[in-house]
Amino acid sequence: MLFVNACGSFLLLVSLSTHVGSITGSGLFAGAVLSAPWLPALLLAGPLNRLLSRRAPERLVRVAEAASLVLTAAALVVPGHALLAVATVLVLARGYGEAVTRSATSVVLRGTVAPERLERANTFAEIGKLTGVSLGAALAGPAAAVLPLRGLIAVNAAMLALSVLLAWALPSPPERASVSDQASGGTPADTHLRVDNPVLRRLFARFLLVAFWQGFHTVAVTVIPLHVLGGGTRLVGVFVAISSVAVFAGSLAALPAQRYLGRLPSAAWALLPMPPLLAAVLVGRTAATIVLYALFLVLFEVAYVHYNNRLLAVASAEELPSVVTLRATLLPSGVAVSILVTGVLCDLAGPLPTVFVVAVITLLVTAATSATRQVWRGSLRDA
After folding, report:
1. Which end of the chain is more exposed for a tag (fewer CB within 10 A), N or C?
2. Is 177 a residue whose pLDDT tops 50?
3. CA distance 263 to 280
Protein backbone atom coordinates (compact mmCIF):
# COMPACT_ATOMS: atom_id res chain seq x y z
CA MET A 1 0.00 0.00 0.00
CA LEU A 2 2.81 2.43 0.87
CA PHE A 3 4.46 1.66 -2.47
CA VAL A 4 1.27 2.34 -4.47
CA ASN A 5 0.50 5.50 -2.48
CA ALA A 6 4.01 6.96 -2.80
CA CYS A 7 4.37 6.04 -6.49
CA GLY A 8 1.15 7.73 -7.57
CA SER A 9 1.65 10.75 -5.33
CA PHE A 10 5.17 11.50 -6.52
CA LEU A 11 4.24 10.90 -10.15
CA LEU A 12 1.70 13.71 -9.86
CA LEU A 13 3.78 15.86 -7.51
CA VAL A 14 6.88 15.94 -9.72
CA SER A 15 4.70 16.62 -12.76
CA LEU A 16 2.95 19.51 -11.01
CA SER A 17 6.30 20.92 -9.89
CA THR A 18 7.60 20.74 -13.46
CA HIS A 19 4.49 22.47 -14.84
CA VAL A 20 4.71 25.26 -12.26
CA GLY A 21 8.44 25.72 -12.91
CA SER A 22 7.99 25.89 -16.68
CA ILE A 23 5.10 28.36 -16.48
CA THR A 24 6.52 30.68 -13.82
CA GLY A 25 10.21 30.21 -14.61
CA SER A 26 10.83 30.10 -10.87
CA GLY A 27 12.80 27.32 -9.23
CA LEU A 28 11.51 28.57 -5.88
CA PHE A 29 7.87 28.06 -6.87
CA ALA A 30 8.65 24.64 -8.34
CA GLY A 31 10.45 23.62 -5.13
CA ALA A 32 7.59 24.97 -3.03
CA VAL A 33 5.12 22.74 -4.87
CA LEU A 34 7.40 19.73 -4.44
CA SER A 35 7.60 20.29 -0.66
CA ALA A 36 4.00 21.47 -0.20
CA PRO A 37 2.55 18.13 1.05
CA TRP A 38 4.81 18.29 4.11
CA LEU A 39 3.30 21.57 5.31
CA PRO A 40 -0.04 20.29 6.69
CA ALA A 41 1.74 17.76 8.90
CA LEU A 42 3.96 20.51 10.33
CA LEU A 43 1.04 22.84 11.06
CA LEU A 44 -1.37 20.16 12.31
CA ALA A 45 0.91 18.03 14.50
CA GLY A 46 -1.44 18.31 17.50
CA PRO A 47 -4.55 17.01 15.71
CA LEU A 48 -2.49 14.24 14.12
CA ASN A 49 -1.26 13.13 17.53
CA ARG A 50 -4.81 13.14 18.96
CA LEU A 51 -6.10 11.09 16.04
CA LEU A 52 -3.39 8.48 16.50
CA SER A 53 -4.04 8.35 20.25
CA ARG A 54 -7.80 7.98 20.07
CA ARG A 55 -8.65 6.18 16.84
CA ALA A 56 -7.96 2.71 15.49
CA PRO A 57 -4.95 3.14 13.15
CA GLU A 58 -6.23 0.87 10.38
CA ARG A 59 -9.43 2.93 10.19
CA LEU A 60 -7.39 6.13 10.01
CA VAL A 61 -5.46 4.75 7.04
CA ARG A 62 -8.68 3.83 5.24
CA VAL A 63 -10.27 7.24 5.83
CA ALA A 64 -7.08 9.09 4.87
CA GLU A 65 -6.67 7.15 1.62
CA ALA A 66 -10.35 7.59 0.75
CA ALA A 67 -10.11 11.35 1.43
CA SER A 68 -7.02 11.60 -0.78
CA LEU A 69 -8.88 9.78 -3.54
CA VAL A 70 -11.89 12.13 -3.30
CA LEU A 71 -9.66 15.24 -3.41
CA THR A 72 -7.73 13.91 -6.39
CA ALA A 73 -10.87 12.88 -8.28
CA ALA A 74 -12.35 16.35 -7.64
CA ALA A 75 -9.53 17.88 -9.66
CA LEU A 76 -10.67 15.93 -12.73
CA VAL A 77 -13.84 18.05 -13.08
CA VAL A 78 -12.07 21.41 -12.76
CA PRO A 79 -12.07 23.54 -15.96
CA GLY A 80 -8.81 23.53 -17.89
CA HIS A 81 -7.78 27.14 -17.21
CA ALA A 82 -7.94 26.58 -13.43
CA LEU A 83 -6.67 22.99 -13.35
CA LEU A 84 -3.05 23.68 -12.42
CA ALA A 85 -3.90 26.06 -9.56
CA VAL A 86 -6.67 23.85 -8.14
CA ALA A 87 -4.58 20.67 -8.44
CA THR A 88 -1.73 22.34 -6.56
CA VAL A 89 -4.06 23.42 -3.74
CA LEU A 90 -5.62 19.96 -3.56
CA VAL A 91 -2.17 18.33 -3.34
CA LEU A 92 -1.38 20.65 -0.43
CA ALA A 93 -4.62 19.70 1.35
CA ARG A 94 -3.99 16.04 0.59
CA GLY A 95 -0.66 16.22 2.41
CA TYR A 96 -2.35 15.84 5.78
CA GLY A 97 -4.00 12.61 4.66
CA GLU A 98 -0.65 11.30 3.49
CA ALA A 99 0.88 12.15 6.87
CA VAL A 100 -1.94 10.22 8.56
CA THR A 101 -1.32 7.25 6.26
CA ARG A 102 2.43 7.13 6.94
CA SER A 103 2.06 7.57 10.70
CA ALA A 104 -0.92 5.27 11.24
CA THR A 105 0.71 2.52 9.16
CA SER A 106 3.61 2.49 11.62
CA VAL A 107 1.13 2.02 14.46
CA VAL A 108 -0.58 -0.83 12.58
CA LEU A 109 2.76 -2.59 12.09
CA ARG A 110 3.66 -2.17 15.76
CA GLY A 111 0.34 -3.70 16.85
CA THR A 112 0.17 -6.61 14.41
CA VAL A 113 3.76 -7.78 13.84
CA ALA A 114 5.56 -9.96 16.37
CA PRO A 115 8.36 -8.09 18.20
CA GLU A 116 11.09 -10.32 16.75
CA ARG A 117 9.92 -9.47 13.21
CA LEU A 118 9.14 -5.79 13.76
CA GLU A 119 12.45 -4.37 12.56
CA ARG A 120 12.25 -6.41 9.37
CA ALA A 121 8.66 -5.27 8.78
CA ASN A 122 9.55 -1.60 9.34
CA THR A 123 12.49 -1.96 6.95
CA PHE A 124 10.23 -3.49 4.29
CA ALA A 125 7.82 -0.58 4.80
CA GLU A 126 10.63 1.95 4.23
CA ILE A 127 11.81 0.06 1.16
CA GLY A 128 8.28 0.02 -0.25
CA LYS A 129 7.79 3.73 0.36
CA LEU A 130 11.19 4.68 -1.06
CA THR A 131 10.68 2.44 -4.10
CA GLY A 132 7.35 4.12 -4.76
CA VAL A 133 8.90 7.59 -4.44
CA SER A 134 11.77 6.69 -6.78
CA LEU A 135 9.58 4.99 -9.37
CA GLY A 136 6.95 7.74 -9.30
CA ALA A 137 9.58 10.46 -9.75
CA ALA A 138 11.27 8.48 -12.54
CA LEU A 139 7.98 7.93 -14.40
CA ALA A 140 6.92 11.58 -14.14
CA GLY A 141 9.03 12.68 -17.12
CA PRO A 142 7.99 9.93 -19.59
CA ALA A 143 4.35 10.10 -18.44
CA ALA A 144 4.21 13.89 -18.87
CA ALA A 145 5.46 13.47 -22.44
CA VAL A 146 2.42 11.40 -23.44
CA LEU A 147 -0.30 12.55 -21.02
CA PRO A 148 -1.72 15.98 -20.22
CA LEU A 149 -1.97 17.12 -16.63
CA ARG A 150 -5.54 15.88 -16.37
CA GLY A 151 -4.40 12.45 -17.54
CA LEU A 152 -1.67 12.38 -14.87
CA ILE A 153 -4.27 13.25 -12.24
CA ALA A 154 -6.44 10.38 -13.51
CA VAL A 155 -3.49 7.98 -13.19
CA ASN A 156 -2.90 9.15 -9.63
CA ALA A 157 -6.61 8.72 -8.84
CA ALA A 158 -6.53 5.16 -10.19
CA MET A 159 -3.49 4.32 -8.04
CA LEU A 160 -5.18 5.85 -5.00
CA ALA A 161 -8.23 3.67 -5.66
CA LEU A 162 -5.94 0.64 -5.53
CA SER A 163 -4.38 2.00 -2.35
CA VAL A 164 -7.84 2.33 -0.77
CA LEU A 165 -8.56 -1.32 -1.56
CA LEU A 166 -5.25 -2.35 0.00
CA ALA A 167 -6.00 -0.21 3.07
CA TRP A 168 -9.22 -2.17 3.65
CA ALA A 169 -7.12 -5.34 3.86
CA LEU A 170 -5.08 -4.00 6.80
CA PRO A 171 -5.52 -6.08 9.97
CA SER A 172 -6.75 -4.64 13.23
CA PRO A 173 -4.13 -4.59 16.01
CA PRO A 174 -5.72 -6.49 18.92
CA GLU A 175 -3.89 -4.53 21.62
CA ARG A 176 -4.99 -1.24 20.03
CA ALA A 177 -8.61 -2.30 20.23
CA SER A 178 -8.31 -2.73 23.98
CA VAL A 179 -6.85 0.77 24.33
CA SER A 180 -9.81 2.19 22.43
CA ASP A 181 -12.22 0.31 24.67
CA GLN A 182 -10.56 1.76 27.76
CA ALA A 183 -10.76 5.26 26.35
CA SER A 184 -14.44 4.84 25.55
CA GLY A 185 -14.99 3.57 29.08
CA GLY A 186 -14.09 6.92 30.56
CA THR A 187 -10.31 6.82 30.96
CA PRO A 188 -9.01 9.48 28.54
CA ALA A 189 -5.66 8.81 26.94
CA ASP A 190 -2.86 11.33 27.34
CA THR A 191 -2.74 13.13 23.99
CA HIS A 192 -0.06 15.71 24.79
CA LEU A 193 2.60 15.80 22.10
CA ARG A 194 5.69 15.09 24.17
CA VAL A 195 8.37 12.48 24.68
CA ASP A 196 9.68 12.08 28.24
CA ASN A 197 11.73 8.92 27.70
CA PRO A 198 15.44 9.94 27.61
CA VAL A 199 16.21 7.07 25.22
CA LEU A 200 13.68 8.36 22.71
CA ARG A 201 14.96 11.91 23.08
CA ARG A 202 18.49 10.83 22.24
CA LEU A 203 17.27 8.76 19.32
CA PHE A 204 15.27 11.72 18.04
CA ALA A 205 18.45 13.82 18.18
CA ARG A 206 20.16 11.32 15.88
CA PHE A 207 17.08 11.10 13.71
CA LEU A 208 17.31 14.89 13.27
CA LEU A 209 20.97 14.44 12.42
CA VAL A 210 19.91 12.19 9.53
CA ALA A 211 17.45 14.91 8.48
CA PHE A 212 20.37 17.36 8.53
CA TRP A 213 22.26 15.08 6.13
CA GLN A 214 19.19 14.91 3.89
CA GLY A 215 19.03 18.70 3.68
CA PHE A 216 22.74 18.87 2.89
CA HIS A 217 22.30 16.20 0.20
CA THR A 218 19.51 18.24 -1.41
CA VAL A 219 21.98 21.11 -1.83
CA ALA A 220 25.04 18.95 -2.58
CA VAL A 221 23.62 17.12 -5.62
CA THR A 222 23.88 20.42 -7.48
CA VAL A 223 26.83 22.07 -5.75
CA ILE A 224 29.29 19.14 -5.88
CA PRO A 225 29.08 18.44 -9.64
CA LEU A 226 29.08 22.15 -10.51
CA HIS A 227 31.60 23.61 -8.06
CA VAL A 228 33.70 20.67 -6.85
CA LEU A 229 33.94 18.79 -10.15
CA GLY A 230 33.58 21.80 -12.45
CA GLY A 231 30.93 20.11 -14.59
CA GLY A 232 27.71 21.33 -16.16
CA THR A 233 24.05 20.45 -16.08
CA ARG A 234 24.71 17.07 -17.72
CA LEU A 235 27.00 16.05 -14.84
CA VAL A 236 24.34 17.26 -12.39
CA GLY A 237 21.86 14.89 -14.04
CA VAL A 238 24.32 11.99 -13.78
CA PHE A 239 25.05 12.85 -10.15
CA VAL A 240 21.34 12.99 -9.27
CA ALA A 241 20.64 9.68 -11.01
CA ILE A 242 23.51 7.86 -9.30
CA SER A 243 22.52 9.40 -5.96
CA SER A 244 18.97 8.08 -6.34
CA VAL A 245 20.28 4.59 -7.09
CA ALA A 246 22.63 4.79 -4.07
CA VAL A 247 19.82 5.78 -1.68
CA PHE A 248 17.67 2.95 -3.00
CA ALA A 249 20.60 0.51 -2.66
CA GLY A 250 21.09 1.67 0.92
CA SER A 251 17.48 0.88 1.80
CA LEU A 252 17.88 -2.60 0.29
CA ALA A 253 21.20 -3.11 2.09
CA ALA A 254 19.56 -2.24 5.40
CA LEU A 255 17.39 -5.35 5.18
CA PRO A 256 20.15 -8.02 5.33
CA ALA A 257 22.21 -5.70 7.56
CA GLN A 258 19.54 -5.79 10.29
CA ARG A 259 21.15 -8.83 11.93
CA TYR A 260 24.47 -6.98 12.18
CA LEU A 261 23.29 -3.46 13.04
CA GLY A 262 23.02 -4.24 16.74
CA ARG A 263 26.58 -5.53 16.97
CA LEU A 264 28.00 -2.05 16.48
CA PRO A 265 27.41 0.82 18.90
CA SER A 266 24.47 2.94 17.80
CA ALA A 267 26.82 5.91 17.47
CA ALA A 268 28.78 4.10 14.75
CA TRP A 269 25.91 4.49 12.28
CA ALA A 270 26.08 8.25 12.73
CA LEU A 271 29.85 8.37 12.20
CA LEU A 272 30.36 5.83 9.40
CA PRO A 273 28.95 8.04 6.60
CA MET A 274 31.34 10.91 7.36
CA PRO A 275 34.72 9.54 6.04
CA PRO A 276 33.43 8.81 2.50
CA LEU A 277 31.65 12.18 2.44
CA LEU A 278 34.81 14.07 3.39
CA ALA A 279 36.89 12.02 0.96
CA ALA A 280 34.40 12.62 -1.89
CA VAL A 281 34.86 16.39 -1.63
CA LEU A 282 38.59 16.34 -0.88
CA VAL A 283 39.53 14.10 -3.81
CA GLY A 284 37.74 16.31 -6.35
CA ARG A 285 37.88 13.81 -9.24
CA THR A 286 34.72 12.87 -11.08
CA ALA A 287 34.73 9.06 -10.90
CA ALA A 288 36.21 8.85 -7.39
CA THR A 289 33.92 11.57 -6.04
CA ILE A 290 30.81 9.93 -7.45
CA VAL A 291 31.76 6.52 -6.01
CA LEU A 292 32.63 7.94 -2.58
CA TYR A 293 29.51 10.09 -2.45
CA ALA A 294 27.39 7.07 -3.42
CA LEU A 295 28.97 5.15 -0.53
CA PHE A 296 28.08 8.03 1.79
CA LEU A 297 24.45 7.80 0.64
CA VAL A 298 24.31 4.01 1.13
CA LEU A 299 25.57 4.38 4.72
CA PHE A 300 23.28 7.39 5.23
CA GLU A 301 20.23 5.31 4.27
CA VAL A 302 21.28 2.39 6.49
CA ALA A 303 21.64 4.85 9.39
CA TYR A 304 18.18 6.25 8.68
CA VAL A 305 16.61 2.79 8.73
CA HIS A 306 18.52 1.91 11.89
CA TYR A 307 17.38 4.95 13.88
CA ASN A 308 13.85 4.80 12.49
CA ASN A 309 13.53 1.18 13.62
CA ARG A 310 14.97 1.99 17.03
CA LEU A 311 12.45 4.77 17.54
CA LEU A 312 9.51 2.53 16.69
CA ALA A 313 10.84 -0.36 18.80
CA VAL A 314 11.73 1.62 21.94
CA ALA A 315 8.44 3.57 22.13
CA SER A 316 5.80 2.13 24.44
CA ALA A 317 2.19 1.79 23.29
CA GLU A 318 1.34 5.07 25.05
CA GLU A 319 4.33 6.90 23.54
CA LEU A 320 3.90 5.58 19.99
CA PRO A 321 1.36 8.22 18.77
CA SER A 322 3.66 11.05 19.86
CA VAL A 323 6.70 9.29 18.38
CA VAL A 324 5.19 8.79 14.92
CA THR A 325 3.72 12.32 14.96
CA LEU A 326 7.07 13.87 15.84
CA ARG A 327 8.77 11.69 13.25
CA ALA A 328 6.36 12.97 10.60
CA THR A 329 6.99 16.60 11.59
CA LEU A 330 10.57 16.80 12.84
CA LEU A 331 12.06 15.10 9.77
CA PRO A 332 10.78 17.66 7.21
CA SER A 333 11.53 20.49 9.65
CA GLY A 334 15.11 19.30 10.03
CA VAL A 335 15.48 18.95 6.26
CA ALA A 336 14.16 22.47 5.67
CA VAL A 337 16.50 24.04 8.25
CA SER A 338 19.42 22.07 6.87
CA ILE A 339 18.73 23.19 3.30
CA LEU A 340 18.73 26.81 4.45
CA VAL A 341 21.89 26.53 6.57
CA THR A 342 23.98 24.44 4.19
CA GLY A 343 22.77 26.43 1.17
CA VAL A 344 23.91 29.70 2.75
CA LEU A 345 27.23 28.12 3.82
CA CYS A 346 27.87 26.82 0.31
CA ASP A 347 27.21 30.27 -1.15
CA LEU A 348 29.38 32.10 1.37
CA ALA A 349 32.22 29.66 2.11
CA GLY A 350 32.06 26.96 -0.55
CA PRO A 351 31.32 23.22 -0.48
CA LEU A 352 34.46 22.03 1.35
CA PRO A 353 33.94 24.15 4.51
CA THR A 354 30.26 23.16 4.42
CA VAL A 355 31.15 19.46 4.44
CA PHE A 356 33.48 20.02 7.40
CA VAL A 357 30.63 21.79 9.25
CA VAL A 358 28.38 18.77 8.57
CA ALA A 359 31.08 16.44 9.94
CA VAL A 360 31.64 18.59 13.05
CA ILE A 361 27.90 18.79 13.80
CA THR A 362 27.69 15.02 13.37
CA LEU A 363 30.52 14.49 15.87
CA LEU A 364 28.96 16.90 18.39
CA VAL A 365 25.49 15.33 18.20
CA THR A 366 26.94 11.82 18.40
CA ALA A 367 29.03 12.74 21.45
CA ALA A 368 26.05 14.40 23.15
CA THR A 369 23.92 11.28 22.63
CA SER A 370 26.60 8.70 23.42
CA ALA A 371 24.56 7.23 26.27
CA THR A 372 21.87 5.95 23.88
CA ARG A 373 23.22 2.42 23.59
CA GLN A 374 23.73 1.92 27.32
CA VAL A 375 20.25 3.22 28.18
CA TRP A 376 18.75 1.19 25.32
CA ARG A 377 20.29 -2.01 26.69
CA GLY A 378 19.07 -1.12 30.16
CA SER A 379 15.51 -0.58 28.90
CA LEU A 380 15.58 -3.99 27.24
CA ARG A 381 16.70 -5.64 30.47
CA ASP A 382 13.96 -3.84 32.42
CA ALA A 383 11.38 -5.01 29.89
Report:
1. C
2. no
3. 27
